[in-house]
Amino acid sequence: MSQQLGILVVIDNEAAVVSGTLRDHIYLIDNGHWAGSSGEATGELVTAVEGTQSASQLEQQVLNWVPFGIGSPPVPTPQIAFLQTPDYALLADVPHPVRRPQYFQPRILDSAGVDIRDSLSMRDSGGRVRLAGAEDKTVYYPDPAIINITGEAVDLGVIFPAQYGSPDFFSEGLYWSATVDTNKVGLFSYTMHIRLHYSTRHDGVVTDHAITLPHSAYIKVTRDFAKNGFANTPMILPV
Amino acid sequence: MQAINITFLVDVIGALSHGTLRNNIFMADNGLDSQGNGTEALITTCCPGQPVNWVVYAIDVQTPVLIRAITFIDIAKEDDQQLIARAFERPPEKGGDPHWFYWSGIIPRSLKPGLYRYSLKLQMGKGVHSTMSSDAAALAVVKH
Amino acid sequence: MDPENRTEPRTITIVAVVDVVGILASGSFAGSFYLIDNNRLRGSTGEGTDSLVTRVRPGDRIVWIAMTLECEAFASITAVGIEKEGQRQYCDPHSYVYPNTNIVCWVADVAANAGGARIPYNLSFRLGSRTAAMTTTTTPQLDVQD
Lengths: 239, 144, 146
What we know:
The complex is a heterotrimer of chains A (239), B (144) and C (146). Chain A is mainly beta and 239 residues long. In chain A, 8% of the residues lie in helices and 38% in strands. Chain A is built from three helices and eleven strands; from the N terminus they run βαβββαββαβββββ. In chain A, strands 2-1-4-8-7 form a five-stranded mixed beta sheet, with no helix packed on it. Classes of the chains: A mainly beta (239), B mainly beta (144), C mainly beta (146). Strand 11 of chain A pairs parallel with strand 6 of chain B, so a sheet runs across the interface.
């Protein structure tokens, strides 16, 4: 089976930063439920990976991790869809953000299509104008980034993860993917290191922060002998 | 003798959305003189004694597709002594799960030339609508 | 958390994650549909299940978005149905298309007089290239604080 397995990593950014842990605020979902994965939509996903000892319909198994922050717009919505005219002009220019400090790029949007950073000045994240102020406030950017995958599965050579770029706008074009050595049968844990961003305004000064939190999940590799599908007649076709 | 590889691509979500493999399966092989390459109705030219392999791929790499069964539709006459029992379907229990199978075999050496149609049964995911068949393809067995 | 935020209206996002292949192959949402929101810290329960209870306050904005497990599969919410007629005054979802795209989300504002209401809803989706929409049959709801 040539199916690549996709693992969606859904994170409630604000809750994770405030609690200081991803536990209870990360939900892992893969598309291998029909093939035996368990723990879907919890933090304890066990992804089932099946291998075989000789050529069969099973080919090299591939895992893909896609992070998604609750509160950001849906993944296929490109950020450039929301750019204002002066930003379009900036995109055509050589990227030197320091030359035009009054403009932020790229924009960071929430699920309602509103720039998160607007809430630091005039509008809240629901798009409604409220009194502008300089009061202390914290803004949590919804998009998490996976910055590394380590752990038992990597150390034992069960999975070979790396970060890849893609022409898709999802995850800002970056995602993690790993091939699996299905000769190594068993239950293995791996750890994702996830970076979350937030900004605070205190005494009128805006400071950007990032925090990296780990979270572990599992893969379960099983294996069986490949058999010829033509049952009793493995060599001669039953025509 | 060189093996013939019959490869087919399946648009899994298209097939599941419309409930049919029609227009969602594209077959091709590396035989000489085969007809219907790129369509659902591939007629593969082959000879007695030649090995044949079937391999399936999904167009969307994150969707699952497996060959559940290949059954020959036109069963030869009873008095043909080279006839071997036809394949039966395996139920999907562990160890018998379709993804542990590979599909390849050899055309019987004494098979009479002719058109032998087969039914391809595919499984896409799990559930009542997950299995679909296509009966349009065939092997055209010719003399050496 | 910012103490000033306590009385301010918030935008709460509900993500509906769908396994398109799983739903089309089995003909039902069971085992292939997950709801998650970003309000767990303030009282939402059932995160990750098909019966999420989202805690909200009057004045909050709710945004529903669809997310597929297979990154190239298509899924779109065609309707958010408030099951009880009398509750539509509390919450009236409408669709919103992100500008310059064809990506849809559904938005509703919780009415000021909705305090104390429990509002069950269902979601209808278009999946893959299937023309007819499919509707969920479980009971997610909005739980409005007093």
